[in-house]
TrEMBL record:
It comes from Chitinophaga tropicalis. Its EC number is 4.1.2.4. Pathway: Carbohydrate degradation; 2-deoxy-D-ribose 1-phosphate degradation; D-glyceraldehyde 3-phosphate and acetaldehyde from 2-deoxy-alpha-D-ribose 1-phosphate: step 2/2. This is Deoxyribose-phosphate aldolase. Belongs to the DeoC/FbaB aldolase family. DeoC type 1 subfamily.
Amino acid sequence: MQLNKYIDHTILKPTTTLEDIKNLCMEAVEYDFAAVCVPPPFVKLAKTFTGSTDVKVATVTGFPFGYSAIEAKVAETVLCIVDGADEIDMVANILAIRNNDWEYLEKEIATVMPLIRNHGRAIKVIIESGILLEEEIIKCCALYAKYQVDFVKTSTGYAEKGATTEAVRLMRAHLPANIQIKASGGIRTFAFAQELIAAGATRLGCSGSVAIMKESAVTK
């Protein structure tokens, strides 16, 4: 298992500095992580630091609560694409999920997907699984499978509960094989990273990625 290729090396805190972004990207290049995930204003800078390497640049829209208007998410998506983001982690409208407004959620993803596909980008839809009922997670899987998103993602890291192996297993059981799962939120140890991968995650959003890699090297 190439653990490094599962990792989105992440910094999304509102106090992020230019130096933080440089360090994140340099670490990602050193460890050959799958991607860095940075706040939208830092996408251009991250692209500069990752250069011609294989490290992709991901960013977020509708972050962290998901209740931005559809028009706002469209505008954010356009700006992310213009700035060069390879992957976009969009927070679904959690209010709509909790209020059983699946018509709104379908309109949201149906509006955003053409932008993603027409520009050859990847999308990860964040559903905040830690605060949803099982039936809500299953409905999300059905909806986002219909629109052939690239990933369904567990969490923003800002809710009271992040990734769990149970949620990843549930998602894997209700998503077609071609749709991947990104686990994020509270992944701080190599052991937990292994558990999430075994449960079906193919990408891990981590801020402590380097520590996890060092732990994995010691564990071998």
